[in-house]
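FORM 7B: Structural annotation worksheet

SECTION A. Query
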Amino acid sequence: FSLISYYLIAGNLLAFVLFVSPIPTFRRIVRNRSTERFSGWPYIYSLLNCLICLWYGMPIVTPGIILVCTVNCVGAIFQLIYVTLFIMYAEKGKKVKMLGSLLAVFGIVAVIVVVSMRLFDPSMRQIFVGYLSCVSLISMFASPLFIINLVIHTKSVEYMPFYLSLSTFLMSVSFFAYGMLKLNSFIYVPNGIGTMLGGVQLALYAYYSRTTREDSREPLIVSCE
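SECTION B. Predicted structure
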């Protein structure tokens, strides 16, 4: 294996850790048969991001990065399962919102695929989808900002799990290094931003974890609605 392959495989493994990290939350949702105060929006955003990055990694768009395609395919399957479970156990208002958002995600991705295939030649198609995937990744990495604000406000890391933050940071570092070695700015720019945001989360965790009571900690993300 080349150095590039090692970084890509590491990024794939760490991405898998991210994909399975919401399982404790959904075990709780299924057990209580309620979504409680949890938000389904992070999983909608992640599904949209995985589908766009999956399309970017397809050989017909960007040859030579098939593992980017496969990891996002796995991610999309996980996010679709999470969104489906959320819709099943959400109250009526949330259920309708989430179902509408899910249909909107599929519609957006369908439009992106059709437009990129019909209106762009291969080189411009890669640039067009690359910019979209870059914006999508940055949006996904920026989504925990409300949690960072919550941590600072409450001086508690109750809603910011350590292993989720750590795996996000390490995955971003791996894909940033991979993008730099491949000279692909559509990969290293958003993952560079993800590395910085992940580092901020870890620094906050180290600072505020001393004041957080272990017995009060709840899993993962609560609703920001």
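SECTION C. Observations
DSSP finds nine helices and no strands in the chain. Residues 169 and 217 are 21 Å apart (CA to CA).

SECTION D. Sign-off
Analyst initials: ____
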